[in-house]
Amino acid sequence: MATRRLRALKRWMKSNGFEWSSALQFVDTPEEGISVKALCEINAGDVVAKMPKKACLTIKTSGACEIIENACLGGYLGLAVAIMYERSLAEESPWEGYLQLLPQQECLPLVWSVEEVDQLLCGTELHQTVQEDKALVYEDWRENILPLLDSEPSKLNPAFFGVEQYFAAKSLISSRSFEIDDYHGFGMVPLADLFNHKTGAEDVHFTALSSNNESEDDTDDEIVDEEALAQNSSMDKTEKGVDSDMEYSSITEDDTSMLEMVMIKDVSSGAEVFNTYGILGNAALLHRYGFTEQDNTYDIVNIDLELVLQWCSSLFSNRRSRSRVSLWRRLGYSSDTENSEYFEISFDGEPQMELLILLYIIFLPDDVYHKLDLSVAVAENFHESSEKTTFLNDNIFLKKLSNMSKKTLMTKEVCDALLSLADMRESLYGLKSLEDDIEALKRSSFVRDRKLYHSSVLRISERKILQKLRNYASKSCKITNLSSAGKKLKRTTKRES
């Protein structure tokens, strides 16, 4: 279905040198927005779209380029200024045909109200992250955008550079920008951003080649890998020509002034053609792109080290908690940044190995703990790292600990600890139960209640993982008890015989 805004975009793209296969159909509906579907079978290897770099909205191509560079603003900050500037020009902007298609802002938690963030994201992986994001983005605006209005009073319309406009531009960049090349950096790529995301089901690849004559560097042409930068898709080098069904085909095969969308899978007639923004769980999808996917197998739940310390302090003295965690760190199981340490619980409910080792160390008998602590202290006195490693590797208990499987680490005490940690993590969601969240999701509309809908999907997916963690711990505890009972029976039988 071609709506008025879609027809306007097509006219703008044609006049700016964009090319796309006649096998692609652009569909615009109130329920799902814009999607790209196949009018006939499309084969892997087909180049289905080409986008001129000069028609992408970047710092370099924007009319605000001089203002941005004079203010030494780069990256996302500079791109946000470019978007706000072009929007301020309205019909006079070279990108008016593209900008008219974009929403004022994407429905990212970044642009939700503080009350909505607290209410809808409470307990989730995103709650604290979004709070911090909002504070940092506001600081960026106050320190970098406001001074621009004073230094460029005749060139900038203040109505388009307020804090709300800045947040809106940031939401568009987060959800729609691509890494183009070293010269252009990140930018808005019309046509490429029409393809919707589906986790683990990529049909089409976004491909960009760096151009020597556009960059001040003398490096060879190189591929820009956007997946490594957690952007809209991964990139790889291609030397495919333009598909025979391509409209307005006049670009040479290896022309680095163009970006390409290349099919990596066959797609049947009538099917939607998907890009992928990376292998991401729902927290990352909602955070960066403003949507979630039900039954996303890449979902995880994090249990902060701080929560583990709270649990530990409820059973043992603070001195014991600190000393056991300190030993765990010295053994090399913690991350480099102590202030943001956490443990992942996978989609299947399996806890991270480092968490199990920490819990195992916490429950070590005092005599075993002191021997291990002394061994590590002696090893730390070695000046040469190779000698220290050799000493640690020769320690029988350390060797046993490093070779332990998850099954071996799942003692009754560790299982009980995981059950308690699951309950503590669950309590962060507030008084509403999982069943309440499921009912809220059923009542919400994907179109009318986007914030409630996607936050509900996130909460439900996280809480189901906590359920799986409890099942994992309970099942492991039963196996441990049966194993212990079997060993006890064997010992009793031997004594009797």
Automatic annotation (TrEMBL):
Gene3D superfamilies: set domain protein methyltransferase, domain 1 (3.90.1410.10). It is an enzyme of class 2 (transferase). Its main location: nucleus. Protein-lysine N-methyltransferase. Residues 22-278 form the SET domain. One of its GO terms (cellular component) is nucleus. Its EC number is 2.1.1.-. GO terms for biological process: methylation. Belongs to the class V-like SAM-binding methyltransferase superfamily. Histone-lysine methyltransferase family. SETD6 subfamily. Keywords: Methyltransferase, Nucleus, S-adenosyl-L-methionine, Transferase. It is found in: Nucleus. This is N-lysine methyltransferase. PROSITE patterns: SET. GO terms for molecular function: protein-lysine N-methyltransferase activity. The keyword Hydrolase does not apply. The keyword S-adenosyl-L-methionine applies. Residues 228-247 are annotated as: Disordered. InterPro entries: N-lys_methylase_SETD6, Rubisco_LSMT_subst-bd_sf, SET_dom, SET_dom_sf, SETD3_SETD6_MTase. Transmembrane segments: none annotated.
